[in-house]
Here is the input.
Amino acid sequence: MGVPLRPLAVAGARSVYREVAPPPALAAVLACGWHGRTGWARPLRVLPDGCADLVWDGTALTVVGTVGAPLRLWLPAAETRVGVRLRCGAAAAVLGTPMPELPAGATRLSDLWGAEARRAEDALAAADPLAQRGILEKLVAGRGVVPDRRVLAAIDALGRPSVRATDVAAEVGVSERALRRHLVHAVGAGPKQVHRVRRFQLFLRRLELLADRRTSLAGVAADLGYADQSHLGRDCRRLSGSSPAALVRVAEKFQTGAVPPGHDQRHVPSDDPGPL
Here is the structure.
């Protein structure tokens, strides 16, 4: 986790990041698998999306996720990482831990699973990079859990630009209070924050259009159901630490190769032009 999507060489180093679709049998639990090589030491921000990654960095197997605020991570030079991304709403079931009980940032999986996680670390350390992702997928499959379908359906519904928690609760057949309880357990946030994060992720997918001047911030704000451009700006600063215009400038640099390029709508360089 936390490496750029496209290759870029800097002072002889090369950064690589690749995603792959999860096995069909794990599609309800995993969003993707990935592997990457840092290439050179640098800071990175992980933007909130409500997901959690199981990450093997060659030394430790950790869980990393955020739903409230961006994380700042330091990536050592030439570090190889392999991971699987648990779907938003699936992590609590897989980990066997309510998400509010996990601290923000990285948690050693052995702190949660004990010997099972340590055996996985031994297997990962002995495997070649091509086999490591399969080990992580097998580890997740071995939990034998299926996330609450109502929770997943609610999270999907909260991804709509303009939606109310009352309507989502009715759609999935629970009370609004029960919806909040289920989401806090599964994601670590209530309906309002999940909606805020999901809508912010939709904004991030518009950055390329904004960088190409094919749309405007005001137009995107309206399309995504923000009250106005200022509303978009407040949410963007809360969830990324930067203004929308600053993230657009980063996207412009991604296109020119001036900075490590953008990834999967989750990671951006921490040395971007926006305030941190």
In short: Confidence is low (pLDDT under 50) at residues 1-9, 259-264, 270-276. The two ends are 21 Å apart (CA to CA). Strands lie at 8-10, 13-20, 30-37, 42-46, 52-56, 61-65, 71-75, 80-86, 105-108, 267-269.
